[in-house]
Amino acid sequence: MSKQDLMLRPFQNSDYEAYKWVHDHQLPSVNEFDEGYFFSETITPRFFQTMVTMHESLREDQDAYIYGAFNELNQLVGIIELITISDDYRKAEVKLRVFNLYFNQGYGKAMIKKIFNEAQSIGYTHLVAHCPLHHNVAHQLFISCGFKDEGAQLVQECDQICWPTKRVFSAVL
Q1: pTM score of the predicted model
Q2: Is residue 95 domain-resident?
Q3: Nearest residue to 110 via CA among 75, 141, 64
Q4: Would you say 7 and 30 are in contact if contact means Cβ atoms under 8 Å apart?
Q5: What whole-number distance in Å separates Cα of residue 59 and Cα of residue 82?
Q6: Can you give the pLDDT at residue 54?
Q7: Helix (H, G, I), strand (E, B), or coil: what is residue 112?
Q8: Assigned domain for 164 exists
Q9: How far apart (Å, rounded) are the C-alpha atoms in residues 7 and 78?
Q10: What is the domain-level CATH number for residue 78?
Q11: Is residue 107 within 8 Å of residue 115, measured between CB atoms?
């Protein structure tokens, strides 16, 4: 497959089968950073429709842009998010997940390269990524995509009360 054929797009209700399939077929965790197999019994059409509606609301409010990454066979290979982290809507955090069925096939790099164009079209001028301190594969991925290593920093995460130390990477668009 040519990674140029990778398509990033917001989830649609019609993506339910691809979303369910990849969760049903996840392999057991292959490393400490991989979520691995997911109990997919909870992924129902209603759950998925609610998720799509929530993503649309976040996009309309300019709080977050969440994309499915689909290969040429319309298989969901990953999810990438741009989360607005500045009051002027110019800076976003990039969050990336490649499903472990598709590890080591170049999808992570292709997703990041494609998200640059998407981020620019939204109006972002800066991107940051927060990675676990010892996730060397992620560190190398962001550096290979043109991010600058800003070192270890305390990072406030919106879904956590604590401020964990993460490796921070940044890119100017």
Answers
A1: 0.93
A2: yes
A3: 141
A4: no
A5: 10
A6: 97
A7: helix
A8: no
A9: 11
A10: 3.40.630.30
A11: no
